[in-house]
Amino acid sequence: MAISITESIRVGLSDFWSRKIRSFVTILGIMLGTMSVIVILAMVNGINKQTLAWMMERGGLAKITIHHNWGYESKKNLPDYFTLKEIFNIRELLPEAQYYNPEMNDWGRLSYLDKSFRTRVQGIVPDFQFIEEWSVDQGRFISQFDIDQNNDVIVIGTKAVEELFGSAEPLGKFINFNSRRLQIIGIMKHRYLKNSFNVGDENSLDYLNWRCFVPISTMINKISGEDKINTLTLKAHSPEEAPDLADKLEEILLNMRQGEPIFDIQSAKEEAQQIEKNAGTFRVVFFLISIISLLVAGIVIINIMLATIQERTREIGIRLAVGARRFDIFIQFLVQTVIVTFIGGLIGTAAGISMLNIVSKYMEFQLIAYPGMVIVALAVAVGVGFLAGIIPAVKAANLDPVQALHYE
Amino acid sequence: MENVIRFENIEKIYDMGKVSVQALRGVSSDIKKGEFVAVIGPSGSGKSTLMHIMGCLDTATTGSYWLEGKEISKMKKNRLSQIRNKQIGFVFQTFNLLPHLNVRRNVELPLMYSGISAGKRYKMAEKVLNDVGLGDRMNHKPSELSGGQRQRVAIARAIVNNPAIILADEPTGNLDTSSGNDILSIFSQLNLTGNTIIIVTHDPAVAQRADRIIRIVDGLIVE
Fold first, then answer.
1. Who has the most CB within 10 Å: A105, A281, B57, B189?
2. Does A320 touch chain B (CB under 8 A)?
3. Same domain, A122 and A193
4. What is the C-alpha to C-alpha distance for residues A88 and A85, in angstroms, rounded to an integer?
5. pLDDT digits (tens, 9 = 90+) for B10-55
6. In this structure, are A219 and A70 located in the same domain?
7. Which domain holds residue A141?
């Protein structure tokens, strides 16, 4: 008949109290290890969340972007841009996509009266609003009618408003872009996403607020004078359909350029999957690194327990003499180690979580906790205690009663 | 009267690498229920080895040993633990109490390993401690007691499970004469109430208290 688990825990706890310094050292080791596990897990989670948040802000996971493949040089000197006609062809071949937006950029000086600044003006179509999930705050966006008529209209971002008008009313005013006179018909919504990486601006979407938009036809026919569309964005009906759509696009584009991979296709969904995958790898790698500290703690525990058992050989002999079975002795020491590591794990988890804010502030980088990591950290701490406890406990259980009783 | 202990041709050989030492060279005897027996012999005679085998702390190399009619020699270690727990009460020369447990918890130890509930353990420990005259010291640590008192705690621990035999190994060896006599008186009283008592000693004065003496010299019973 074995003694009950509650009895083992009681014996283990009284051992714990009667050896305060050793227990404290053990707890400290496990605590530090657990703390680093918590911080690491929160850090990887933070990076992951931030990247995904950025992707969601930039059109979501159903978005597909195509532009020139910079890593490839065409052998036959084929064009690395689209013509408007080609875009229509693609659209005909691939009606599954919900939205299409050909994009043609031009750098230049935007001016109003005596004020001016350099910026990028984009020629786009109305689908832009639905792909980027970004529309006007005031006035209206570019319409199909504007495209058909090559209208001289422009929609500007909030930074452009600030730069050219200050507090004056911009709607209806005429501004110049590379000596073309354009009427302001709308102002885009201000974009903001808190940057938690501490590189660049505090607002990681601020560059968008500088952008200005004109009808793509106006851009081609009146501003740049060239039919060279450098970027095409599409949106699938759902993120699930996006990878399939990207595959079909790839085939079409290869056909269009005699099998040469001139264009690069980026599916947000696939990127997100890649990010998830990378985050998973990160998590495992960092996790293993932080486990090393727990392993060190485990080795310390093995040493402490071996010393404890050596010291308590006689006690083990007495227990065996009055009827303890080997399993009782094994459990007594194992429970003791597991209790100590569990307490260490609990304190470490609490300390780790309460440290997250401080670390976030110090590193200016957001660490995000999630419930699962508490379970992971505790399980690892107790697991280490369990593994480290087994060797000493087996040694204790295998002592010979006669020799143990006569141990000095 | 029935035999509580019976052993036949017990040999014990300690294998110490190149040398092997024969501690017992074929001993046979029996002890009846209710007997008070002294096992005496000079040091190195094998009396401690015999005591370890009778106490199921060790097993014989060859030969047979029956405790209350059951053959012990071939039993597994866990079974031996149970026998020590239920059928044998030990009293050692050095008391062997656990220093960080109080008197009551020390006495409760065998009961804990036999799975008796905490409440019942408390009552049983209280009773035997009253029997040995230490009812008022239950919550003291062993270090707060005199040698004689400690040995009385050890006796209380030995009898708390109502064992078939009480095995005492030089129980007065670490005590002054007066305390030693007190302890021996307790053994005599326990014997009067029907307990089987085996005392291992080299002290003839202690052996005199026994009904019968088993004398061991060089691993053989000579008397």
1. B57
2. yes
3. yes
4. 5
5. 999 988 888 888 899 999 999 999 999 999 988 888 898 999 999 9
6. yes
7. 63-268
Regarding predicted confidence, which is higher, A194 or B120?
B120
Residue A1 has pLDDT above 50, yes or no: no
> CB neighbours (10 Å) of residue B124?
19
Say which residues have a Cβ less than 8 Å from residue B115's Cβ, sequence separation at least 6. A1, A2, A3, A4
**Residue A19 pLDDT more than 80?**
no
Give φ, ψ of A60 to 5 degrees: 80, -175
Q: Which residues of B touch A323 (CB under 8 A)?
A: 81-82, 84-86, 110, 113-114, 161
Asked which of A208, A236, A268 is the last residue of a domain, the reply is: A268
Asked whether the beta carbons of A320 and A399 are under 8 A apart, the reply is yes
Mean pLDDT of B84-97: 94
Domain boundaries, chain B: 34-60+76-221
B114 touches chain A (CB under 8 A): yes
Which pLDDT band, with edges at 50, 70 and 90, does A197 fall under? Answer: low
Last residue within a domain, chosen from A250, A268, A286:
A268
Choose, out of A322, A325, A330, A402, the residue to mutate when testing the contact with B (most B CBs < 10 Å).
A322
Contacts of A365 (CB under 8 A, 6+ apart): A43, A46, A196, A197, A198
Hey, which CATH number is domain B34-60+76-221, 3.30.450.40, 3.50.50.60, 3.40.50.300, 1.10.357.20? 3.40.50.300
From the list A247, A292, A253, A286, the residue with the least C-alpha distance to A267 is: A247
Same domain, A132 and A240: yes
Tell me, yes or no, whether A223 and A279 share the same domain. Answer: no
Nearest CA in chain B to A5: B115
Chain segment A141-175, per-residue pLDDT in tens: 999 999 999 999 999 999 999 989 988 899 999 99
